[in-house]
Each structure stands twice: as C-alpha cells, then as structure tokens.
Amino acid sequence: MSAYTDKVLKMVKERNPGEVEFHQAVEEVLESIKVVFDKHPEYEEHGILERLVEPERQIIFRVPWVDDNGNVQVNRGFRIEFNSTLGPYKGGIRFHPSVYSGIIKFLGFEQIFKNALTGRPIGGGKGGSDFDPKGKSDGEVMRFCQSFMTELARHIGDKTDVPAGDIGVGGREIGYLFGQYKRIKNRYEAGVLTGKGLSWGGSLVRTEATGYGLIYILEEMLKENNVSLIDKEVVVSGSGNVAIYAAEKITQLGAKVVAMSDSSGHLYDESGIDLEYIKEIKEVNRGRIKEYLTKYPEAEYCEDCTDIWSMKCDIALPCATQNEMDEESAQKLIDNGVMAIAEGANMPLTPAAAKLIQDNDVYYIPGKAANAGGVATSALEMTQNAMWDHWSFDKVDQKLQQIMINIYKNASQVAKEYGLEGDLVAGANIASFHIIADAMIDHGVI
Q1: 136 noted as active-site residue
Q2: What are the structural domain ranges in the chain?
Q3: Which of 6, 236, 363, 392 would disulfide-bridge 340, Cβ 3.0–4.6 Å?
Q4: Beta 161-164 vs 89-95: how paired, if at all?
Q5: CA 120 vs CA 57, 92, 266, 329: distances in Å
Q6: CATH number of 56-188: 2.60.120.280, 2.10.50.10, 3.40.50.10860, 3.40.630.10?
Q7: CATH topology agreement for domains 56-188 and 209-361
Q8: Is 241 annotated as a binding residue?
Q9: Does the pLDDT of residue 1 top 80, yes or no?
C-alpha cells in the first residue's frame, strides 16, 4: 500500500512547503503504517490519512508587548489544533526563537499519536511563539504572556483545547498565562491549562513526569530483555525538566549519570553528576551548566553540546530538542558500545540516526512512546481538576508508571502482530494509528 502513503506524503509536502520538521514527522509515521492498509483497506476508503495530516484548525496571531525600556516588541503566536477525535486538543506551548508553523505542526502531529498511546481521552495540538524568555526580566515575561493569552483565550477551554508547558514555558509562564485567562474570562477554570502550581490546581509528579516516565518505559523494556539498570553509565542531553528528572529516576534505580548538557556545551563527571547542584544552577538560578565547574573543578566541560554523544556510555537519553543526534553522533555511540537509547525529547534523532541505531540492534524507544509521561500526567491533572480533587504523589506516580508500562506492552505486542517484533517505532505508530483511525470512522467524515 505504499502508493497510498506516498500520495499523501507528496500532498503534505506540496501543501506545506519548507516545513521540513513537519514533513519528517509525517514521513516517519507513514513509513511505519504502510503494512496496516493491506489488512485494513477501509482506512483508505474513509480517507483517514488525508484527514489526519491536515490540522482541524491553525491559528497564527500577533503578540505585541512592551519591554523594560518602554519599547514595543512584536512576536508571532501559534496554536495548531490538530485532531480532536479522542478528546480536547492537548499539547504544550513552546517559547523559543526557532518556533514557526513547521515546528508547531510537527509537534502537534506527534502529539496526536503520543496522546492516543496514553489511553487518556485527549486529542493532539501544540502552540508557541518565537519569543525568547532567556535573558528577559520577570516583568517582560509577564507582559508577553498576558498579551499572548489575550488572543489565545478565545480558542481554548477545558473541553476544547488544554495547553501546557514546553521549552521556554515553565511554572512561571503557566502562572502568568493562567492569571490572564482568569482575568479575561472572569471564571476559575482550573482545567484550561496543565502544569499549574500545586496550590492552584496543579498535580504532584507533573514536574517529574516526562523524565520519570522515560525511565519507567526504559526499565520495562530492559527488564523484558533481562537487562538491569544497576551500574549502567548514562549520558543525558539537556538540563531542563525532562533531563533532570530522567537523570534523577535512573540514578534512584542504580545507574550513574556521567554527562549532561545545555545549549552552550556539555559536562562530563566521571564520578557521577551531582543532580542537586544541577537543579540549583538550572531551576533556582536559571544559570548555565558550565557553572558546575565552580564546585566540581575536576569535571570536564566542552563548549559543544552536540559532542556529548562522543562520551562512552551504556545508555543514551536525548532530552534536549529535535534532530539533536545525527548519523555521525549515533555512530560514535555505537562504536562506544551503547546498548539502549530512549528519546526524552520530541524526534531528537534524525531519520538516518534512527535507522542506524535500529540496524545495529540497539534497544530503541521513540519519543512518542518514551516521553508520553508528561502529557499522561497532564491528563491526570485534568481529571483531578474535573473532580475538584488532589491526589497524593504516590497515587499519581503509580498511575504514571502503569501508563508507561501499558504503552510499552501495547507497542511491543502490536509490532509482534505485524511481524515486526522488537520494532517499537512501528509498534507505537501502528498501535496509536489504529486507535485514532477507528474513532475517526466511528465519527463519520467531519
């Protein structure tokens, strides 16, 4: 059935010129699900792919704000409401200079499948702006967030579209966004945003969720293959939420994190990274990872974040950004004996890197399965908000762990059913596609 998927991919590229990240995300999914259409020709008859690759709604808007010097600045805001088949649109907001429509479409498209894998009733969407919060004062960030939400507020709601945080959008930004939403609507709709503060509708474990979830699914995969995490050396790219809490959980399970990075460079500490000090640098001081050397001068620092993959390790966790690991980096990891790679970021491996890793029999979990813990816990936050309830850390953590185990088992089983045993890329894509496609057929052509 490659003729059908090839036709749809060609259409996507013609309709969305220059949006290479979006093209890459669509191509990766379509390549995996070709085998589905021989068994299920009804999906082509209902035009499932043509409908799936076209967002239900795309919103682009101007975001004017005033900086601390009294100058007017103008950024561009985006919200792509991609697919609401399974529930309200759900996906983060990213503030980063690289943001444009292609990035948001890629992230929104990935979110459809990731959200379906969680088993929670949530559709896929994504938003953001080319605004850079780095180096901005709290006042500037607040004024930008208020302007951004002034437009976004008319498009979102707890039963319509529920944004969360992403790169550049943490607890501070979510607080400013929620405050403005509440002011505009004159209603306390706690479920309209997730990643909120604990005192005003947030959920325990949400901060740790993506990182913890990454390790829970990795542990499950390795356990099935009789491999222990004890004493394994781990390299983690990034030093944001996902990276820090993935490093924390894998350390708790007996592994040793020896390298981390930020956009300026990477750090190597043979004796094991001091995560509490990394948290102080990044979460408290909003500093650069190079500051680690002030306390640990014996550690090594290199002003090249991509070179982190030249470090020898057993397990690599790319947790920074899309396409951060290319084929050359993947080859270095293979040469150094890496045994497992799990994606904490969205699409952090280039297609060539991912193929190389799979061809060399490295255990590999793609992002739409491996980093689904964040959105799964956001959905648990929505549930608590709807119930006007607040669950304990252990209760949320147990639910998160079970969701991640279920994702692994589902993807693994589906891959096996299609004669692709061990291929979690295909398994995750096919399993989620079936869920979405069957529901789209049930809803009719809309």
Answers
A1: no
A2: 56-188, 209-361
A3: 363
A4: parallel
A5: 22, 16, 36, 35
A6: 3.40.50.10860
A7: yes
A8: yes
A9: no
The pair of three-digit structure tokens given for residue 66, joined into one six-digit string = 């005033």
249 annotated as a binding-site residue: no
Report the CATH superfamily, name and number, of domain 209-361: NAD(P)-binding Rossmann-like Domain (3.40.50.720)
**What is the per-residue pLDDT across 90-122, written as a single tens digit (0 to 9) for each?**
999 999 999 999 999 999 999 999 999 999 999
Q: Which two tokens stand for residue 99?
A: 């943001």
Q: Which of 7, 10, 126, 182 is catalytic?
A: 126
Largest CA distance in the chain: 64
210 marked ligand binding residue: yes
Residue 261 assigned to a binding site = no
User: What confidence tens digit (pLDDT) does each residue in 270-324 have?
Assistant: 999 999 999 999 988 889 999 999 999 999 999 988 899 999 999 999 999 999 9
Residue 171 annotated as binding? no
The beta strands (E) that lie in 130-264 are given as: 161-164, 233-237, 256-262
**CA nearest to 404, candidates 340, 348, 344:** 344
